[in-house]
């Protein structure tokens, strides 16, 4: 829920975030418990590793995500138009101003990260700023700021890294088990069991966490579109930005799109071309048609048609 801001709240999003965080936390506990059972004597290592990585994930996952996506913080002197747009939107929404960053990429996109409003960051790519008109850019930035206000960006930042944590813990735990198994006795049999079971548990955890984040991500994108359109009062500008970004995405080289694809859950629009659309069942975003239809309904509600 958007606390202490003028962004339109969404109880459906709040309940979905609560359920997702509960299931993600439960999944993490079950995963660590399964490793402890499978690793037997290595349980202290598993506990220390799991606890340490969880703390690192909570405090630094937003910085890791921003760095991975090429975000570089800029001052008002370096990017006056971008800062000016964020200043106006934050004043309109009555919320703290986040840090502002630019990613030097031709892919037209934007994203937000941060574990709370005071520690948040909003980033736009150079490709986005070059393609959009000022009103369209403000619509996209309002969309990203609503993620911060609704705090769903925190849930996505934490949840998206569970698969990475599962893989890291699995590799370390498996290596430890193999080292112990090579010292004789029944070690070879134990190692064979670990080689089969531990990666299987990790794969199951990754698949479940992936599905949970995708379900939440599609809903939160529609919520952000709605909140941004209502805050700015210009749903048509956001619709125009969506149309431009989605259309231009097909012109971006496939190599660049593949590099950006792992971060789709964070982006304003998914980084794939129309030729790569597939069934969208596992997409991080609703379809363009769904988003435009919602914005059209909001325009009607606001009396613009």
Automatic annotation (TrEMBL):
Its EC number is 3.4.24.-. Binds 1 zinc ion per subunit. Its cofactor is Zn(2+). Keywords: Cell membrane, Hydrolase, Membrane, Metal-binding, Metalloprotease, Protease, Transmembrane, Transmembrane helix, Zinc. The chain crosses the membrane at residues 12-36, 42-60, 153-173, 193-212. It comes from the Bacteria. It is a multi-pass membrane protein. The keyword Zinc applies. InterPro entries: HtpX_protease, Pept_M48_protease_HtpX, Peptidase_M48. Zn(2+) binds at residues 143, 147, 221. The active site is at 144. It is found in: Cell membrane. Residues 77-297 form the Peptidase M48 domain. The keyword Transferase does not apply. GO terms for molecular function: metallopeptidase activity. Belongs to the peptidase M48B family. This is Protease HtpX homolog. It comes from Streptomyces gossypii. The lineage of its organism: Bacteria, Bacillati, Actinomycetota, Actinomycetes, Kitasatosporales.
């Amino acid at each position: 829920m958007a606390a202490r801001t003028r962004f339109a709240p969404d109880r459906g999003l709040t309940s979905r975030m609560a359920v997702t965080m509960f299931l993600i936390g439960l999944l993490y506990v079950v995963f660590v418990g399964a490793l402890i059972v499978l690793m037997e004597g290595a349980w202290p290592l598993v506990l220390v590793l799991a606890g340490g990585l969880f703390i690192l994930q909570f405090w630094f996952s937003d910085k890791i995500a921003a760095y991975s996506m090429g975000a570089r913080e800029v001052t008002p002197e370096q990017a006056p138009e971008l800062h000016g747009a964020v200043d106006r939107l934050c004043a309109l929404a009555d919320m703290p101003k986040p840090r502002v960053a630019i990613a030097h990429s031709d892919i037209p996109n934007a994203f937000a990260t941060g574990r709370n409003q005071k520690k948040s960051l909003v980033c736009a790519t150079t490709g986005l700023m070059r393609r959009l008109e000022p009103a369209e850019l403000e619509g996209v930035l309002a969309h990203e700021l609503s993620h911060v206000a609704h705090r769903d960006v925190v849930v996505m930042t934490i949840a998206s890294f569970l698969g990475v944590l599962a893989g890291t813990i699995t590799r370390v735990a498996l290596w430890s088990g193999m080292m112990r198994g090579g010292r004789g006795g029944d070690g070879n049999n134990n190692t064979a069991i670990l080689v089969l079971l531990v990666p299987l548990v990790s794969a199951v955890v990754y698949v479940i966490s992936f599905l949970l984040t995708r379900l939440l991500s599609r809903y939160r994108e529609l919520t952000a579109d709605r909140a941004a359109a209502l805050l700015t009062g210009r749903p048509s500008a956001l619709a125009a930005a969506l149309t431009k970004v989605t259309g231009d995405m097909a012109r971006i080289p496939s190599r660049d799109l593949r590099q950006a694809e792992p971060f789709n859950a964070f982006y304003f629009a998914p980084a794939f071309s129309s030729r790569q659309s597939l069934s969208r069942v596992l997409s991080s975003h609703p379809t363009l048609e769904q988003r435009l239809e919602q914005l059209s309904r909001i325009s009607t509600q606001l009396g613009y048609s």
